[in-house]
Amino acid sequence: MNGIGIGTGAGIGLLVAATLLPSCGDESAPMTVDAGATTDGAASMPAPPAEPAEAAWPSMTPCSAGWVEATDASGATVCMPWSEPAPAACAAGEALFPGGGCARVGTECAADGWPTGLPTDRPILYVRADAAAGGTGARDAPFARIADAMAAASAGTIVAVATGTYDEDVRVRGSVTLWGACVAETLVTSTRTSEMAGTVSSGGAGAAARNLRISGARIGVSVVGAGATLDLDDVAIDGASNIGILVALGGHVSARSLVVRNVSESDGVGSGRGINVQSASIEIERGVVEHTHLAGVFVTGEGSPGTTATLSGVAIRDIEPDSGGFIGHGLHVRAGALVTASDLVVERATELGVAVTESGTSVSIMGALVRDIARGSSGDARGVFAGEQASIDASRIVIERLGTAAVVAVDRGTTLRLTDAIVRDSTGDEVTHSWGNGIVAGLGATFDVERAVLRATRSIAIGAADDGTSLTLQDVRVLETQVEESSGERGRALQAQSGATLHGTRIELRSNREVSALAGNPGTALALEDLVVSETAADPRGQGGIAVSVQEGATATLTRARVEGSYQAGVYALGGEMMLTDVTVRDTRSRPSDGQGGRGVGIELGAKLVASRVAIETSHEVALAVLAAGSSATLEDVTIADTMPAECAASTCPGFGAGSGVVAADTASIEMRRFVITRNALTGVSVVQGGVMDLHEGEISHNVIGANADDPMFDLSRIQDRVRYIDNGRDYDATILWIPPVLMDVRPD
User: Fold this and answer.
1) What is the pTM assigned to this prediction?
2) 250-283, pLDDT tens digit by residue?
3) Distances from the Cα of 430 to the Cαs of 375, 435, 437, 459, in angstroms?
4) What is the chain's percent helix, strand, coil content, to nearest 5?
5) Do residues 266 and 243 lie in contact, with contact meaning Cβ atoms separated by under 8 Å?
């Protein structure tokens, strides 16, 4: 600590070489005392700061049919696919579809074993597994094999299959429908192994299958080739090998009430994927893909245009890694494919819930729940990922209980947009107990967020890094960010670093840790408009608690902001540039670890501040501190009031708690125009250790000491230009006072 400590009681205490100037009646005095304005003219009162606009809440309702309204702990309304907790398991023949709960797939099994509800205007051939040889396909003389019925079928024929097990490969002819009696007891399987052929395949346009179950030691359903199509209604593919459904090379599948589950790995390239779409297309309305490997749904363009997938009301869950332990993605889209999804659920996948990669690849999501993604061998557990110039547009999405990060966009040309989103309850990495980030943009990606709440994520809720990265936030609330479990550090709401740009409009940051908003490194720009930051807490070590900080050559711009309830400092610049317009900083408290600090605004170590219409109220130690060589502050329309001593002054640092309104120290400079500095516990303004201060058109009132300068050669006229000194204990004092130190450095990482 520098200088000599000063008491903070009713007197000044420990004055050294004090200079008490003559009263206001002496016109030769260098400073007027309670005499109103100086001869340069009347002072103008500062214009007050404008209040920030409130952030809008996400618009998640009305919920889709069967989805359930629920209230997040933040107060936001969300739509969930079923009432929580979800059923642990469904009965045999049922599946947990989004928009309700466990439901039977297909019809009940009839007592006579035949399909029900068959149309009367189409030819029908009948098949029963235990039929006698030589059947004709009539109901009373059915075929014993489906292949025999297919060979006899003409266009428009229905092949009606009774309950039973059919061990054969079935090629459904074009314009023919394979119609089972019920999913629970009608099984088409194949014990003949194959890596590429399906148990059921399409033989042409208009092929269809419904109300049955498919399995086998091969791909479940295969639709390959231009012109090959297959309509699936109430079909369960349960126990296939390599791939549940393969659609490739121009094929098309349209499915309703589809279940794909329990796909095992094999030596094939699918390695246990649920659905594999390659240079082809698929449409699914109401589906479940579960207990597969490598990927639940994999869609790849492979350089061919026209690869598309439309998923409506589909749940992808329990996707396990391959035998190498690498990945088990929920939905993976790549190589120029286009996917549109609505009412999507992805849960308990491995490494990535939704992964979208490569140029030209695009995914649009309207209504989704992504959660509980397990750690892959890479160490990642992310909810939504976009990279390599791909794009994602997701709205009405809930992302919860993620490990390393909830949503990530990387690489130049990559774009990701979130609208009406809830990101919550991050767990951090399950092995290292690190990270747990909410939103991450890096390596030049473009990320836009509109109407979102991030609550109880870990380490860094929203982060942007690297040159060319652009992260834009509009109507975003970041609440209760937790520290990283392994280190006990961070807990930050926003962080921009390494040349990234982060711009936010209508932002609320509440109950975060260490630093609510941090910008660091040259070229980094943080710009926040209509910002409210409240109750930033220190980390578990009692350090930090700063609302907004800019460091190491970064720039930060705050426009219409209210900062309240911080620790250590409300707004803090360490070697960077800070621009404040219409900003209120109030109720800044000393840090819990040692009771020091509590500054409203700190500008240190070469940092620069430009501010207009600013109010700094009820700080501790110093309201505005500009410290160290190269630091400067230029302000107009400023109110600084009710600064108290640091909290340690009553216990561990008596005489060193200050309570000053404005301090310029160690050759730092301040210029202020149109201001009121009032009711501070010690000094209104202090110019010490070679500091420079120029004051114009203001009032310094009701302080113990109006102005303090420790250099007897300081030109007092620099702080008298239309400045009134009113009702101070002393208007001027030359005592060497305690100099506030540079605060602890909290750096981006």
Assistant:
1) 0.92
2) 999 999 999 999 999 987 666 899 999 999 999 9
3) 7, 10, 13, 14
4) 0, 50, 45
5) no
